[in-house]
């Protein structure tokens, strides 16, 4: 049984939550290995293609064998059936772009960390009814750090992670942390299509190291 407090603590301590999907399983695996070598210990693989479940199983096997201390979560989960399938494949936590009662129920029944996506104060309130310890603010590029600054006093103690358009730049990352978030989600700004298509693993390693350093300076 995965300890959801340990998963949450890992996300908070590293301060970033990398996320990606790629059709090719071998590339997906090498991306995961590169992130791990750079210091990442919590990663979100996203359910954004027909290969996602099979790829996830392959990555999970490698994580269990070769990457001690790594938590592998699944993102872009929108239905209870999807959640069940990936829990069966070994997902350590569940991330969603929306709030869905069935997904919340699956996460609760397996005692997994559930990170629902919210864009409004009303949605944040609903997510809290499902006991979401960490809430994803999505899309972050539309909301911006000012949104967090404006609403955080309404939800004292609530942890937020903005995802979708967070830039790999010192000014942008520090602005998010100043606004009150506890971590930032990094997708295509870190693991770009170019990095994936051209297998730019050295670049990814360098950029991930930079992101982890920027976050530590911003906290």
Commentary on this structure:
Homotrimer. InterPro entries: Aldlse_KDPG_KHG, Aldolase_TIM. One of its GO terms (molecular function) is lyase activity. Helix content is 51%, strand content 16%. The protein contains eleven helices and nine strands. It has helices at residues 4-14, 25-38, 52-66, 80-88, 101-109, 121-129, 140-143, 145-151, 170-179, 193-197, 201-218; strands spanning 16-20, 42-46, 71-75, 93-95, 113-115, 117-118, 134-137, 159-162, 184-186. The strands form three sheets. Strands 3-2-1-9 form a four-stranded parallel beta sheet, sandwiched between helices. It has a three-stranded parallel beta sheet with strand order 6-7-8. Strands 4-5 form a two-stranded parallel ribbon. Strand 4, helix 5 and strand 5 (113-115) form a beta-alpha-beta unit. Helix 2 (25-38) crosses helix 11 and helix 9 packs across helix 11. The mean pLDDT is 97.
The CATH class assignment is Alpha Beta
Strand line-up across the major sheet: 3-2-1-9
CATH homologous superfamily caption: Aldolase class I
Overall tally of structural domains:
1
Can you tell me the residue ranges where pLDDT is under 50 for at least 5 consecutive residues? none
Number of helices: 11
Distance between the termini: 30 Å
Structural class: alpha/beta
* Number of DSSP-assigned strands: 9
Cα shape: globular
SSE order: HEHEHEHEHEEHEHHEHEHH
Summarize the structure.
The protein has 219 residues and is an alpha/beta fold.
Label this structure with key terms:
11 helices; 219 residues; 3-stranded parallel sheet; TIM Barrel; alpha/beta
